[in-house]
Amino acid sequence: MTLSILIWLPLAISLVACLMPRPLVGRFAAVGSLVTLGIAISFLARFKLGHAGLQFVTDEVWISALGIHYKLGLDGLNVALVVLTTVLFSASLAWASFREWPRPRSFYFHFGLAESAVLGAFCAQDLALFIGFFDLMLIPFYFLTGMWGSGDRVRATTKLVIYTLVGSFFMLAGAVATGVLVSNQTGGSLTFVLSALQQVHLSHASQDWIFLCFAVAFLVKMPLVPFHGWLADGYKSMPIPAVAVFSGVVSKVAAYGFLRIVLPLFPYASVHFQMPMLIICLVSIMWGTLVAFTTNDARMVVAYSSVAQLSFITLGIFALKPTGDQGALLQMVNHGLVTAPLFFIVAAAATRAGGSEDLREMGGIAFRAPVLASLALIVALATLAMPGSSNFIGEFMILLGVFQSKTAVSVIAFLGVIGAAYYALRLFITAFHNRVGRSVTSRDVVLGEGVAIVPIVIVILVLAFYPQFGLRRSEPSVRAAIASAQIQAASGHALNVAAGRPLRVASR
C-alpha cells in the first residue's frame, strides 16, 4: 500500500459522498474518514524504529522539465503528524455529521480536499510538491469560512487569503531560488527533491534571504506575532469543525516546515537568525498569554492559547538542540490533541448558554453535566501541562533545550507556562462552575459531542502514560534534521572563541 492511497483517499471519499442522498452525506464522510485513519495507523504500526531515513517511499518524475518529483515518504518527523491529521479530521467529521449544514455535499467535499492537502504537505519530499500542497490547503478553508462561517466572514476570508498568499509568494520565490542556485552550483539539472538539495550548501548570503522568505510564510500560517493579523477574524468566523482541524493540524504544517526544510537546507541562516526567531517566539508567548487572560470570548481564549503553544513549539525548534526539537515535535502532537477538543467543548458549552460563546453567559452546569465537565477538566489540565501529562513532557523538553542554548530565553519563556495555568483554569471554571448563566440549560454530553471528544481524550490519557511512544520514533530523524545547524553553531562558537570576541550566534 502506497502513501498516495492515504493522501488521496479523503478526497475520493468526499467525492463519493457527493453522490449520496442528502441525509447520508455526512455519515458516509465520517465513516469513510475512519478508513483513512486505519490506513494511517497501519503505516505507524509498520514503521521501523531506529531509522533516520525515509520509509514507504514513492518517487516518480512528475514534471521533468522543471525537475519536480512526486516524492512521498515517512520518517520520524512526520509519521506521528500524519496519524494526528487523520485522528482530528475523523473527530471533526464525526462532530459535523450530527449537525445540519446548508449545501452538505459541498461542505464535505471541501473537508475531504483539506485532509488530502494536509496529508500531502506532511508526506511531500520534494520542495515544489510541498509548496503545491501547502497552497492547496488554503482553498478549502477559504470556502469553509466564506460559505459556512459566522459573523463577518467576508472580512475573515479576505484577511486569510491576503496574508496567506503573501506568505506563499515569498516561499515560492525562495523555493525557486533554492533550486536554481543549487543547480548552478553543482552544474547539474534543476531539482527540488529535498534529499538532493540537502547535499549542497548555499552561500551565507543566499541562505539568509531565502530563510527569511520561508520564515514569513510559516510564521503567517501559524500565526505568530507580528504576522497574526488574520487570526481573530479567521478563528472567530470558521465553523467549529473547520477551526478545530485548522488549529490542530494545519498550523503544524508551518512548524513542521521549519524542521523539514529550513533547518536542513539553510543551517547557517538558522543559526544566524536564531536569536531573532527566539525573540519573536517570546513576544508571541507573552502576547497570546496576556490576551487569553483578558478576553471573555471562550473561542478566542482557545485561539490565543494556540498562539502561545505554537510559539513554544517554534522556540523548541530554534533551540537547535536535540532535546528541544524532540520536545517541539512531541508538543505538535500534544497541542493538536488538546486544542481540537477544546473547541468542541466551547461549542458544547455555548449550546447550553443559548448559543453564546461569551464566558459571562456560561457557568454552573458541572454538577448536572458531570461527564462533559470531566472531559473538559482532563483537556484543561493537559493544556496547562499538568505534571504527569504528555504536554508536561513536551514543554519540559522544550525549556530544557532552550536552557541548554539560551538560558535567559528559557527563564522568560517559563512565564508562559505559568500563564497557561491561569487561562486554562479560568476557561474551565468560568464555563462549568460559578453561578448559572441567565440562559444556561444544564444537560450532559450527547452522542454528537461524545463521538468527537471522548476518543481524543482517551488518546491524551494514553500519551500521558507513555509519551515515549512518540519520542522513540522521532529521535533519529530529529538529530539528522538539525545536524547541519548544530555543526554550524559549533563552528561559529569556535571561531568567536579563537578570535577572542564575545560569543554571538554566528559571525560573517
Give the helices and strands, then pairings.
Layout: H1 3-17, H2 25-46, E1 55-63, E2 68-74, H3 79-97, H4 104-123, H5 127-136, H6 138-148, H7 153-186, H8 194-197, H9 204-221, H10 231-237, H11 240-265, H12 267-272, H13 274-294, H14 298-317, H15 322-351, H16 370-383, H17 390-405, H18 407-432, H19 447-465, H20 468-499
Antiparallel strand pairs: 1-2
What does this structure look like?
This protein is mainly alpha-helical. The chain has 20 helices and two strands. It has helices at 3-17, 25-46, 79-97, 104-123, 127-136, 138-148, 153-186, 194-197, 204-221, 231-237, 240-265, 267-272, 274-294, 298-317, 322-351, 370-383, 390-405, 407-432, 447-465, 468-499, and strands spanning 55-63, 68-74. The protein has a two-stranded antiparallel ribbon with strand order 1-2. α3 (79-97) runs antiparallel to α4, α15 (322-351) crosses α20 (468-499) and α17 runs antiparallel to α18 (407-432). The protein is globular and about 70 Å long. The model is unreliable at 494-508 (pLDDT under 50).
